[in-house]
Amino acid sequence: AQKITQTQPGMFVQEKEAVTLDCTYDTSDQSYGLFWYKQPSSGEMIFLIYQGSYDEQNATEGRYSLNFQKARKSANLVISASQLGDSAMYFCAMGGVDKLIFGTGTRLQVFP
Amino acid sequence: DTGVSQDPRHKITKRGQNVTFRCDPISEHNRLYWYRQTLGQGPEFLTYFQNEAQLEKSRLLSDRFSAERPKGSFSTLEIQRTEQGDSAMYLCASSWGGDGTDTQYFGPGTRLTVL
User: Fold this and answer.
1) Which among A42, A43, A50 is the nearest to B103, CB-wise?
2) Would you say B35 and B46 are in contact if contact means Cβ atoms under 8 Å apart?
3) What pLDDT does residue B1 have?
4) Residue B106 to residue B72: CA distance in whole angstroms
5) A91 contacts in B (CB within 8 Å)?
């Protein structure tokens, strides 16, 4: 069975600093995707970044990068130059065609 | 580019009543998903459609739940004889299999409260 583990219930970071949100996964599949979503207090899940299991380079999207370590089964999200608007819940997810399996999330709070 | 939309955004109902939610996916997306999210948890998969075919259902989807996507466009999720345990956020997502990533884009959700 697939499983996502996010061990940080909450994280604090000062504005303009970088922060890493941890994610480990477990699967017996050879082909899978890893995703990060942001969920503000409004409730909508906003897609941030994707990493394919066969991708050799770490994915980047603007201020977001995914530190993919396949042997360790980890897919940590790095947010550079944090902004106040980054305060939200962040979910790591894994999936293929049929469904996504989500972790329990990390609440990130950015302070001035 | 219109995103995924859901209606209603909020629903308050009494235990035992039936409720129906609607989801309109991104127009070119052929896959549509329903998830449920309770407080403090990540979303949990309920079911998914490819075009009009319902291809997978979670064991979370009890007999009181039914989902349809009659013409391969919008979808409805109905809950019959609601229970207080059904109170949750119901999220719809859609994806286009042709981009190679199957990235799912979510709607704003329907928050259900069962009194």
Assistant:
1) A50
2) yes
3) 59
4) 17
5) 42-43
Residue stretches of chain A with pLDDT short of 50: none
- What is residue A20's predicted lDDT score, i.e. its pLDDT? 98
Q: Name which of A37, A100, A102 to mutate to probe chain B: the one with the most chain B Cβ atoms within 10 A of its Cβ.
A: A100
Whole-number pLDDT of residue A97: 72
Query: Under a CB-based contact definition with an 8 Å cutoff, are residues A105 and B42 in contact?
Result: yes
What pLDDT score was predicted for residue B39?
Answer: 92
Taking phi over 0 as left and psi of -120 to 50 as alpha, with beta for the rest, B81 belongs to left
Using CA of residue B96, residue B53, residue B48, residue A46, what is the dihedral sign?
A: positive
- Tell me phi and psi for residue B22, to 5 degrees: -120, 145
In angstroms, the separation between the Cα of residue B59 and the nearest Cα of chain A is: 13
Contact B42 A97 (CB under 8 A): no
The residues, ordered by sequence, that sit 6+ positions from B102 with a Cβ below 8 Å of its Cβ are A33, A95, A96, A97, B31, B95
Instruction: Decide: B23 and B75 in contact? Cβ < 8 Å.
Output: yes
Instruction: Give the one of B58, B97, B101 whose C-beta lies nearest to A33's C-beta.
Output: B101
Best of B103, B105, B110, B112 to disrupt the A interface (most A CBs within 10 Å) is: B103
